[in-house]
Every structure is written in C-alpha cells, then in structure tokens.
Amino acid sequence: MPRAVIVDAIRTPMGKGKAGGALADVHPVDLLAQVLTALVERSDIDPGTVDDILIGCVGQNLEQSATPGRQAALAAGFPVHVPASTIERKCGSGQQAVDFAVQGVMAGAYDIVIAGGVESMSRVPMGSARGDTDPFGPAVTARFGPLVSQGVAAELVADKWKIDRASLDRYSARSHERAAAAAARGAFADQIVPITTPTGVVDADESIRPGTTAEKLGGLRAVFGTDANRERFGDIDWKVTAGNSSQITDGASALLIMSEDKATALGVTPRARIVASAVLGDDPMMMLTAPIPATRKVLGKAGLTVDDIATFEVNEAFASVPLAWQHELGVADDVLNPVGGAIALGHPLGASGARIMTTMIHHLVGTGGRYGLQTMCEAGGMANATIVESLA
C-alpha cells in the first residue's frame, strides 16, 4: 500500500470576516487561487501532474457555489484537465479533505493531490445557504427535540463540565497571547502566503489582538441567554461571549500530498505524514463534544497515548470546547493549542481544518516534536481527529 506524505502546507493570513476586513475585497476563488499558485511554486512541481484538488467549503452558495476548487485552479492557471471536488463536513471540511486525499493516495487513486479549504465569511455570510428553512426535518426533531445553535451548545458544554466564565475568558486571552507571541517570533512566516488585494498586499493575520486580557473579556455580554433559552434550559449561568468564541474570518489553506514514491522520484522532501484518522458522531444536542471520543478513537487506531503527542490542536470554536476536552483527556496546558487557536486566529469554516493542520505541522517542524493530534467539533455532533508525524 502506498504511503502518503505531506510535502508542503500553507495558508493565507486570516482576515476579519466583515466589510472592511483585510481580505473582504478578494473573491473567494481568487483567494484560494493565490494559495494554489504558491503551493506548486514552492515545491516546484508541474500543476498538470496534480491528479485532483479536494477543497472544504461550508457556504456553497453565492460566490462559493461553483465548485470553488475547480474555479480556483482555473484562475491559478492550472491545466484544464486538473479536476476538483468540494467537501462539506461543517467545521471539519478542510480536515476531511486532507483525510480523503491521504486515503486516495493510499488506495492508489492519486499520486499527487491537493487538499485544503476556503471560506470568505465576509462575502458569503454564515448560514446564508440555509436561509429561513428548517434544516433538520420533523423526524430529527421528534427524536431529539428542537436542536440548538452551536452557541447554545457551547453553553451546555460549559454547564456540564462546570466551566465558569472566568476560566473561559482566561483561556481566550491566552489564545491571543500565544498567537501574538508566535507571530512576533516569526513562527507563522513560512506558512503564510501574502495575498494581493485591490488595495495592497496582506501578509499577517488581522485577527490577533495583542494585549487582550481576561479582565477586558470579562466586560463583554453573554449573547445566548435569551428569554426563550432561559425558559427552555432553566438555571444556566450564561457565559459565552464574542470574546470567548472563535472569530468570523476569511481565509484559505492548502496542503500538497503525494505518495512517498512520487516524492522520492521528484526529489522533494516531505514535511509530515498522516499516522491515523478517525471521524465520529456524538450527541447532536450537545453538538460540540465529539472531539473527546474521536480523540480516543484515533489514538487507539494509531496505538499511541496522549503522552506520545507533542502538540494538540483542538479547534477553539468556543473556549468551552478545548476546556471540556482537556478535562476528559488530562492534557497539559502547554501542549494544547500552543500557538493560539480560532479564538485568536479565526475560524473560516471550510478552511479551518486545513489551516489548523498547516499550523500544527509547521509547529512540529519548528520545535522538533514528533506527533501532533488535531480534532474539530462539527455541527450535528460530529468530529474529525487526525494524528500527524513530523518527518523533518
């Protein structure tokens, strides 16, 4: 069976996902196209040798409706014979794209494949594909009751694990502190592709807020404690705010994946390989808890324990998610999201899985760590988990 290796992994800077954001004037196709161009140029490969492009994207409507990976490849000047597909597993879409790419190489279907994700949340607003319709249907509602938003689910997680507001805000301030420190020491430099916009070049994350403190975050209003939610869920101390949640962001990321034999033939040096991957569902009402059993599942598949892992990336959809995960897995603070996460770096939905993997691989290479584990909570109560081994 061919072994799949990751030759390179890059991302855009993260731009605020609103009008006036650093990347808001860039069409998502053009945003991803610049990443694809940089990816093949950095590795000096012929884009015509790419067998497929797998791109995660959640908002597949408006400017992201026409198979954005295909359009981005055309915009990047790839030969027309290079195909693409769009993958949607909610927040884990980019991570699932990487898993599918690796599985394709191992099955012998691909020699060279690009996997990644894109989301322009300033131009394609979150939830705009759904509109005012009911996405669940009467049978799901009859089985589980009316499902809740992810924000309410984050409150339910915080309540179940008895995570107080101060802990959420401390964790969130730490995310910004770690990301700011990483940016200052140049830890993101090799993974970020400068993006040309109509008004200039963007080469740094816009989302990081140096100087953020738990005290400042403590002044923000909890946003999900509406009268309807209070009536339904009773005596919950509502504590989820914009400050202890992931940021709405524009961004794209891509990884170049190929068989080990092809990498050897081309004379390129792989950065990493995928050791094991898993996907799992959990309670759709709690929604954000699946990373806990998914982590245990992927560790079991890899024959590893938490003590073998040098760094863990648990997507910071809300601060309660990694904190509940940490409570169950017993992982030390210093190896959990060591350069910050989505609270500081943003969460461009379909791109986040690839962005996090890109950041994790570069961190492992830069620090000499061997194994990294990444997991993403996903709407509907699902999670992807992947273990990467650095080959540097």
Automatic annotation (TrEMBL):
Keywords: Acyltransferase, Transferase. This is Putative acetyl-CoA acyltransferase. The active site is at C91, H347, C377. CDD domains: thiolase. Residues 269-389 form the Thiolase C-terminal domain. Belongs to the thiolase-like superfamily. Thiolase family. Residues 5-261 form the Thiolase N-terminal domain. Pfam families: Thiolase_C, Thiolase_N. The keyword Transferase applies. GO terms for molecular function: acyltransferase activity, transferring groups other than amino-acyl groups. It comes from the Bacteria. The keyword Acyltransferase applies.
